[in-house]
Structures are given as structure tokens and as C-alpha cells.
Design goal:
CATH architecture of the largest domain: Alpha-Beta Barrel
Strand order of the largest sheet: 5-4-3-10-9-8-7-6
Radius of gyration: 29 Å
CATH class of the largest domain: Alpha Beta
Helix content: 25-40%
Number of strands: 12
Distance between the termini: 48 Å
Structural class: alpha/beta
Length: 351
């Protein structure tokens, strides 16, 4: 059983608790705070547990040459990569405004801290948990400092080897027991052939004391639903108001109707997982009473006859007789009444 812990105030994950669903807004807000608020409300209305952004302190995340390089992509919001990122980056005050709005709406809000200064800001913002993006999963000084803050952590593992993920686990675990690892493949959109859901099973076996989840960049819903059926305790999907909007992530994101359907599907799958104990359920009684088979006589049997298997058939009988699975136990016993062909064999007929 995976470790249970409180990821957000009043919201446990792991064990038998419902899957925690993160709507990753990222920078699909197009740099507009009113659009960001619409997306927070959308995430809430669709049933997600958390709306998530990406917070960077650009001079800490990028080198000066990286910020100054030309950026000529059709998705660019500026002539250089720095101009592009500055256009999309919300200020500290804007994040405070968004957190207040999320609280009013009634949904948790957090962000991936994309560098150490961003983590410091988010810690001061009092987010419920830190999200570690795949690009920082092998950034061990960052992981250690973030873990020492003491907040729960959700760590995506895209682009990493199993050896690195083992080191991630050991590094975080040393300072913070409350974290989850997400299987992730970092391509946008992600080809289903590269999802590798079986890594979830690998993680469950390798790290049995932490909940395992899934961060998906594929198109559609089925793969994420399958991840939940495999035991993912946290799922994260990018969301958008319109897949045709300008930006790298929109194509691999879910529109509102898709997010709502994903939430419904996950909750349905969770209900369907049910109990691991196999038994006849109360809801099956009507079918069993109508169509369940029992032992009947395949020939006339005289009172006092010692019973053998060739005297029995298995049919839907009236009244319902002895269950077929106990038929072998009748062999060698005597019948205490005369029985006609096709009569049900009842327990009170056996000496």
C-alpha cells in the first residue's frame, strides 16, 4: 500500500484516497491575468483538485546568452527568448492575486518553481505543495533545498534514467517523506508509443513507500485514465481554453469539455476498481436467482440409491438446488427420497 500523506490542507493522497487531479495551466494564459482567472475557474468547474502554473525568476533560470538569443518561432511573444518569457511571466503581485482568486473559487493553486529563487517566492506565497518539473528532476542542489522547505512535493521524472530517479528518491526522502513521483515523457504532444505506462508499475515496485502518479502530454483521455487504473495517485494534464491558440503547449492540452470528461472518467474508474475480494455481490442475487445453475437428476433415482456423478446434470433448476461446485461431495452418499428426471437435488434429500 502506498504511503498516504496530506498533499494539500484536508486532502490526502495515496492509499485508497481519490486520485489528485492537477490542471496544468502553465503559461497557456497567454500572459493575461484575466485569462488565467478564467482558466482557474474552468479547472474548478471541471472538477480538478488543483490549478497549477509555472513560476520562473528568469535571470536565475536562464543564462544571459540564453535570454538574448533570437526566438523566431511562430509561438514567440518577443524577438528574443528573454522577451518571449518576460511577456508570459506573471509578477509576484499577480501571483498573489491569482492565489487569492483561487481561494475564492475554492480550488488549490500552486506552481512549478522553475529555479531556486522561484521556489523561495512560492514558499513565501504559502503554496500547498511544490511541483518539481522534469527539467529540474536531476538538479540535485535544487531538489535538496526544496525538500528542506518541508512542503509536500510532486516530482515529474521526464527525461531521466532509472538510475537518476533512484537518486531523486534518495535525495528527497532524506529530507522530506511527503512526496510523489510522476512517470512522465517530455514531448509535446507525446506519441502514445513513448508514454511507457509500465514505468508506473516499476516505480510502484521500486518505491513502495511513496505514491506514484502520471504527468501526461499525450492527446486525448484514454492513456491518463489507464494510468489511474494502474494505480496512479496523482495525475497532471495541461489545459487550455482553445487548442488553436498561440503557444507550444496548447496542442497537447485538454480543452474544458475534455478536462471535465477526464475527471468524470477517473472518478468512474476509481469506483469501478472496488474491492480486491472476489465474492458474489448483493447486486448479483437477482441474476443468480434467475439463471444460476444447480444440480438436477439426469435420470430417475430410487430412494436409498448410493449416488454417483453419472446421475447428475447441471441446469437452471426449479427450485434452485445444490450448487454445482459441491457436486463431487454428493458421490457415495444416499438419497432419501425418490427423484424424477430433471428434479432439483436439494440438501434435505441427502442422508
Amino acid at each position: 500500500m502506498s504511503l498516504e500523506f496530506e498533499l494539500c490542507p484536508g486532502r490526502m493522497i495515496g492509499g485508497a484516497h481519490p486520485c489528485f487531479i492537477i490542471a496544468e495551466i502553465g503559461q497557456n494564459h497567454q500572459g493575461d491575468i484575466e485569462t488565467a482567472k478564467k482558466m482557474i475557474k474552468m479547472a474548478k468547474d471541471c472538477g480538478a483538485d488543483c490549478a497549477k502554473f509555472q513560476k520562473s525568476e528568469l535571470e536565475c533560470k536562464f543564462s544571459k546568452p540564453a535570454l538574448e538569443r533570437p526566438y523566431n518561432s511562430k509561438h514567440s511573444w518577443g524577438k528574443t527568448y528573454g522577451d518571449h518569457k518576460r511577456y508570459l511571466e506573471f509578477s509576484h503581485d499577480q501571483y498573489r492575486e491569482l492565489k487569492k482568486y483561487a481561494a475564492e473559487v475554492g480550488i488549490f493553486l500552486t506552481a512549478s518553481g522553475m529555479d531556486e529563487m522561484a521556489v523561495e517566492f512560492l514558499h513565501g506565497l504559502d503554496v500547498p505543495f511544490f511541483k518539481v518539473a522534469s527539467c529540474d528532476a536531476n538538479n540535485f542542489p535544487y531538489l535538496e533545498k526544496t525538500a528542506k522547505k518541508g512542503r509536500p512535493m510532486v516530482v515529474s521524472t521526464g527525461m531521466q534514467s532509472m538510475e537518476t530517479v533512484r537518486r531523486v528518491y534518495a535525495t528527497v526522502k532524506q529530507h522530506n517523506p511527503n512526496f510523489t513521483l510522476l512517470q512522465c515523457s517530455s514531448a509535446y504532444p507525446l506519441d502514445p508509443a513513448h508514454v511507457n505506462l509500465n514505468v508506473i508499475k516499476c516505480y510502484q515496485k521500486e518505491f513502495p513507500d511513496v505514491p506514484i502518479g502520471y504527468s501526461g502530454h499525450e492527446q486525448g483521455l484514454y492513456i491518463t485514465v489507464a494510468a489511474v487504473a494502474m494505480g496512479a495517485k496523482v495525475v497532471e494534464r495541461h489545459v487550455t481554453l482553445d487548442k488553436t491558440l498561440k503557444g507550444n503547449d496548447h496542442e497537447a492540452s485538454l480543452e474544458p469539455s475534455e478536462l471535465a470528461e477526464l475527471v468524470r472518467a477517473i472518478r468512474l474508474i476509481e469506483a469501478a476498481m472496488g474491492s480486491p475480494e472476489k465474492m458474489m455481490l448483493p447486486c448479483e442475487k437477482a441474476c443468480h436467482d434467475k439463471l444460476g445453475k444447480s444440480v438436477v437428476a439426469s435420470k430417475k433415482i430410487a430412494k436409498g440409491t448410493v449416488l454417483s456423478l453419472d446421475m447428475f446434470a447441471v441446469k437452471v433448476g426449479e427450485p434452485k438446488g445444490i450448487a454445482p461446485e459441491t457436486m463431487n461431495q454428493l458421490v457415495g452418499k444416499k438419497i432419501n427420497v425418490d427423484v424424477e428426471y430433471d428434479d432439483s437435488i436439494l440438501q434435505n434429500m441427502i442422508e
